[in-house]
């Protein structure tokens, strides 16, 4: 119950925070605060208002945005896992996000080595194709004036 409510609030706040109108409203708030400085004599209370407000908003936004990013990351990972599962890719990669940093790095190095090997093999195949195209074709007896020598 609370989880669904928090998720809805977090999604709404994260979406609103990323809109241009939100940025404009924040800028207007700062301008109004700055213009009101002389009215309040640039008092400590005047400064405390903006400091406290921005601190509270920043503190809350960190958790809301982190929650949204965590859910997005898990959803993307689940989608990638499904693609790996139904493709010819190695199923060993499913769930690697739960491994230690060292284990993930080992997988990364294996992938990098496999990619380099595949690039090398592809380059060799391309070189063989180019070599076949450049090699002169052997003359057939019909092309050699119809004479067959034995």
Short structural description:
With 150 residues, the protein is an all-alpha fold. The protein is built from four helices and no strands.
Textual characterization of the structure:
The protein has 150 residues and is mainly α. It folds into two domains: 2-93; 99-133. The protein has four helices and no strands. The chain has helices at 2-17, 20-35, 44-86, 101-134. It starts with a helix and ends in a 16-residue tail after the last helix. The model has no long low-confidence stretch (mean pLDDT 86).
**How does the helix and strand content classify structurally?**
mainly alpha
**Using only CA atoms, what is the Rg?**
33 Å
Query: Which whole number gives the mean pLDDT?
Result: 86
- The coarse overall form would be elongated
Which helices and strands occur, and which strands form pairs?
Blueprint: H1 2-17, H2 20-35, H3 44-86, H4 101-134
Key structural traits:
elongated, 73% helix, 150 residues
